[in-house]
Fold this sequence. Notes:
By secondary structure, the protein is of the alpha/beta class. It has one domain (2-152, 203-365): Alkaline Phosphatase, subunit A (3-Layer(aba) Sandwich), CATH 3.40.720. It contains ten helices and 14 strands. It has helices at 31-36, 61-68, 87-96, 107-115, 161-179, 183-202, 219-232, 253-277, 345-357, 362-365; strands at residues 2-3, 6-7, 9-15, 25-26, 48-49, 55-56, 72-79, 125-128, 144-146, 239-244, 284-290, 309-315, 321-323, 343-344. It is globular, with a radius of gyration of 21 Å. The protein starts with a strand and ends in a 12-residue tail after the last helix.
Amino acid sequence: MEAMDKPTVxxxxxxxxxxxxxxxxVPYQNDIYYDSRPVIAIPQQQILPIDDxxxxxxxxxxxxxxxxEGMVAIVQGVGYPNSSxxxxxxxxxxxxxxxxxxxxxxWLGQAVARMDPARxxxxxxxxxxxxxxxxxxxxxxxxxxxxxxxNYGVMSGIADEAERRQALDxxxxxxxxxxxxxxxxEYVAQTGMDVLRGADVLRKAPESYSSSVEYAxxxxxxxLRDAARVHLADLGTRIIYTQHGGYDTHxxxxxxxxxxLTELSGAIMDFFQDLRDHEAADNxxxxxxxxxxxxxxxxxxxxxxxxxGGSFVIGERVNGGLYAEYPSLDIDKQTDGDMxxxxxxxxxxxxxxxxxxxxxxxxxxxxxxxxIPIISG
Length: 377
């Protein structure tokens, strides 16, 4: 899909740990909410209303500003049947779009294989952070991962290609026994030189970047600044992935969750302002998701792993507003103390794959699921 004669770019922000959607988009007129959360509920007078039922946590005010501009689609009640409360399994399901079995390939890795079938650009998909998110993993698909763009360059100081190959051989011998013959070994074997080739290009991105936007010094702000620099360097990158950790708020949610939302929303606002200042925002859409929501009742300090949560899709080409249904808080409609999901996340993936990335979704998500009209044009 093309936007304004430029390839579309997809930015993914994972909120690791299970964001408390009910304290992000708050049902501030619902007595069950306040009765269930005597410790962690957001006072009604602090809410930034969306309508006469729900509103934004005040710490999410910058995203509320973007929402008021029509740039934010709030997808309520996102999940899947028989939700897993395990971080590992829940994240794995979101990463592979396989809720009924253990998936072997990431949904974004599969998308990259279709977007760049000849593997011409090792920077088609870039992860800002350490390691390789499973969402991006697919044998034969080069994914470049960078923890710190200013100090980046995996073996890029080795000028001679023969020396680089020797270094990779040493790396494979060092880690081959540990990773066996599975996905990690295959990934290293098939994509090692491609990643090194991408490193040469990617390390130049900061050199051409200048901005009047002053990002904060927290991790998600630094990551989204790096995402902006990659995008603005015009390297042919189509997917950028990053994470914001700390959302496992079993305890001390009252001080911690507002801080996380403040960091996140400020970073998102700065990211889009940066892109707008460079006239480079019109072909970018961002997905903000988490592996599950939290329980309806608090536990006296925070709240435990739940089910139905929510996602945000943000961008100038987004049809802003509310989508799907806010999960019911009524006790007879809860699922063992959880808000039940009201919309299958594979429908959200289908919408983004088909309407934004121009990729056939059914082979990736395993069927056909209800789309939502969140993308304009």
